[in-house]
Recover the amino acids of this structure.
């Protein structure tokens, strides 16, 4: 087992992780799986397998074919989309994880990564520097499934010794893909609107602060966690991960500082209620102490990085 399998490779994070793993290990050792093709030219350099990750038999066949040392299980229905179809979201967010954990328990995969989210927190959690260990009472099916998934990860590690690792991602901001249905996706759309010279229709209030991170930092954190000594990891649910934090108004102001104008039309909807239940920022001391995590991008750095990315052709 020496390959690196990304399940859910067609999503925003999957494409970024594909590029990083191809650079690190070579395209021939990266296997991509999704129910739809991966829309990036470098995907053709690696093996692609069409697979419904909710199908246990299909997942077993995929792993038998891919022979992975590491599996990155990224399949999910994000927060805003999930509220429209809660039972479908529950199945999509839980079944693929459980299939991955079972395959790892039975010795078919040495190491599993599964992403959690700031959506695990609810309105009663501390808003600023939200601690690693606090009450998890989310208000969305996405958050409920992530809390449940974290506990399944911990259970399989404690009960069966499965080496599964996880990060509570903040809002992830990239430039290669369009928004994918998350509550923080206004920020991704803001950059596209700014460079295209059109107004942003923002579904959050101008002052709603949320934790954010570049895709570059998120992928680096993922690979650093996966490379860390397992004995050093004190968290077997999911690690808090802080990049930077800003509100829509603060993002617009920073774009202006960097010479980019953006008009915003604010029309808060149900996604504002979701955002209001989430933290403003996260305390990530465990990630820093256990495996040396440190974000590269503050808010100005994030804005510079995304603007620079959008000025280039969208290839690897």
């Amino acid at each position: 087992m020496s390959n690196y399998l990304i399940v859910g490779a067609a999503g925003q994070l999957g494409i970024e992780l594909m590029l990083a793993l191809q650079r690190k290990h070579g395209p021939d050792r990266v296997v991509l799986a999704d129910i739809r093709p991966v829309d990036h030219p470098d995907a053709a350099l690696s093996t692609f397998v069409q697979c419904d990750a909710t199908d246990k038999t299909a997942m077993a066949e995929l792993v038998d074919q891919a022979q992975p040392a590491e599996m990155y299980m990224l399949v999910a229905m994000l927060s805003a989309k999930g509220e429209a179809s809660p039972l479908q979201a529950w199945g999509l967010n839980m079944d693929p994880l459980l299939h991955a954990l079972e395959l790892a328990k039975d010795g078919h995969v040495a190491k599993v990564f599964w992403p959690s989210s700031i959506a695990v927190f609810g309105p009663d959690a501390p808003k600023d520097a939200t601690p690693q260990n606090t009450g998890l009472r989310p208000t969305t099916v996405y958050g409920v499934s992530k809390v449940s998934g974290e506990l399944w990860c911990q259970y399989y590690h404690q009960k069966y010794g499965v080496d599964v690792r996880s990060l509570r991602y903040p809002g992830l901001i990239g430039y290669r893909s369009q928004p994918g249905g998350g509550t923080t996706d206004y920020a991704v759309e803001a950059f596209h609107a700014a460079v295209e010279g059109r107004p942003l229709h923002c579904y959050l209030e101008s002052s709603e602060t949320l934790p954010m991170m570049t895709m570059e930092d998120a992928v680096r954190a993922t690979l650093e966690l996966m490379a860390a000594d397992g004995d050093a990891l004190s968290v077997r649910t999911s690690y808090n991960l802080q990049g930077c934090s800003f509100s829509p108004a603060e993002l617009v102001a920073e774009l202006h500082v960097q010479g980019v104008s953006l008009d915003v039309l604010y029309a808060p909807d149900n996604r504002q209620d979701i955002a209001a239940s989430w933290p403003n920022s996260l305390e990530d001391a465990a990630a820093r102490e256990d495996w040396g995590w440190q974000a590269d991008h503050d808010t100005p750095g994030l804005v510079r990085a995304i603007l620079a990315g959008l000025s280039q052709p969208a290839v690897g």
